[in-house]
């Protein structure tokens, strides 16, 4: 299939390209920009006048819920939701049932993702068996099965010695480790950011130090072991400062933030809506401002959805008994464009944090419009708007943004030159 995309404003943060031009696709690859190659005859032509063409978005955390949690989502439904949000490549965390700690589970996920064909999927393997934080998973076998990095989520290693050994082992094989830094003891039983809102509502608090204490420990162990590390779901301004200091010292560390942390604060909990129940929690306005600044400067080089779909019943209990998480990958691009609309980021910087930033953090073959590379492209209309929830593909409707009018609309998502979503 040969495709010509004509007249789009092409923005590729990886190369600095930002101009109105044409793109030419053949055999799933981007074969030329500007002028068609000799003898090129398009099988389909996309009129992209007024649209922006960018590398397909790269989302570092999308819970696909399969295997084991089919009531919450499936690989087919959640990758379609991702494609509708402009995503062409995503990483899925190891919180499946059974846990993604064997080659068989990794292969099942990859096979079903290929069958669905909506996005490319890069599994994150479990760092420890069963995510118990006691014994190492078979990391090399998982790598060979397709896992691109390894993490334990918020199920932390209780023993710093065991964690140190795990990091040293990973460093030996140049495997990347993903940290979700939260001190178990400081966070235990907590539901919301420790501050005036939690006190007013009578909710048990999780202090900022739950993140910063664990983060400081993790960074010191990264320095000692030499492992490549990515810090996921940074929530506090102090946490971002610790990442910046580590990068200034030359540590091989990158970081991401959940998109909703750049938009919401703990004040959203004032009506006890369980739609805002997330872990780690929404934090203060000062934290949100600090995170926004870290994204702007590139200390945090990736914005991710941290999509966690749930069935309806999971959010119906009293706040403390509900399951944390927001279903948001389908709104990744429109929600992110609200940061441009509000003057917080310019468009090329935002796209960098959604494309080549996350791809570089985990060394993924994605996130750029390189001639000869995969034709993974999103075409969107910056002048249109999206009413969240009008068409909803995720099984999880646990999204506080449903009904909101958001800037921008995804028109086409192409994976290997194939249209996987058309809006």
TrEMBL record:
The keyword Zinc applies. It comes from the Bacteria. It holds the Pfam family Amidohydro_3. The keyword Zinc applies. Residues 53-236 form the Dihydroorotase catalytic domain. Keywords: Pyrimidine biosynthesis, Zinc. This is Dihydroorotase. It comes from Ectopseudomonas toyotomiensis.
